[in-house]
Amino acid sequence: MKRVVVTGVGAISPLGHDWPTVRQSLRAQRNVVQRIANWDAYTGLNTRLGAPAQPFELPEHYNRKATRSMGRVALMATRASELALADAGLLGDPLVRSGRMGISYGSSVGSPPAIADFGHMIIARDTEGINANTYIKMMSHTAAVNIGVFLGLTGRIVTTSSACAAGSQGIGYAFEAIQSGRQVAMLAGGAEELDAIDAAVFDTLFATSTKNDQPALTPRPFDAERDGLVLGEGACTLVLEELAHARARGARILAEVAGYGTNSDGAHVTQPKSATMAQAMRLALECAGIPASEIGYVNAHGTATNHGDVAESVATLDVLGAQVPISTLKSYMGHTLGACGALESAFCLAMMNEGFLVPTRNLDNPDPRCAKLNYLRGEVRSAPNLRIVMNNNFAFGGINTSLVFRRS
Question: What number of H helices and E strands is found in the chain?
Fold first, then answer.
């Protein structure tokens, strides 16, 4: 089997779009949750909290013709992918269009405004506002397809519309495509745009935080006073590449994708199951060929939901024990849904390479119902010997994923 490495990263995120900016926010332990004033217009919507991506500029070649089929989610995904190729030294390289590079990318849904246009058509019985690109913006694979068209990729496309697991499955399936020798390189990741439609989905499940006048105090993963998730948005693309190919071209290697595990609960759409979460982690460890004792840090899914945090903590204790340091980046930038697996993986491997770990924000009193783990709280931790990290993501539908990265 081929070995797979990360050679480039591109991101659009609530914390910033380059690692120095993100690093500064993380080390300062700032979260970027804010009250979304526009959501006051929606009667019955309880949450007003979100974490929008920081403003970003687009180069001139993102003209009207090039972007007419893109909603915001596809636009962020495409720009993140272009930035990732540039970071890898592959932007404009013949490899991109050769058929030996593919795409594995996802989001929960397409662009919500396009979904709303079709909803209006059904209610009003009028096609006003519907055009040739409305469906392209709405479709669940809009991010992957638009990346491919914009950059001219002709390799395989794997689309992962799997909610909170979309980004991590994007990385996992890209890893498997290269590991098996079917592609030399892949653009992998996920994206999501922030919209009241997404907020309403979780609101109806009583899963959103309603600390609307205290945005800095939420979300509170694993805390006894947590009251639900806060949605964010963004996009992140990792360039995954076969190790020998990366070495041959003298690429900078950021980390190795050492293992991947995924499975499904097969029990309930919205009630997570600890046993299968644990099995996903074991599958990732088996794939990496390492014992649980070698994991130096876990980035938890950590949604700050009532059942999710308990189930995840129990699964983590079962597989990794009580000593491994654990925290969650959602406490800084909210839950970016389809983007979270990719954004969190990218930021984890950057922390690993620089030898530090950030605590979970707002984790003042761990919930006694959660397993007793080594929750990182308080100060940023120095971790100069950190070599292997695990990133876990668990989605509605009982879709479980676990990724293991090794320092190069």
Answer: 13, 16
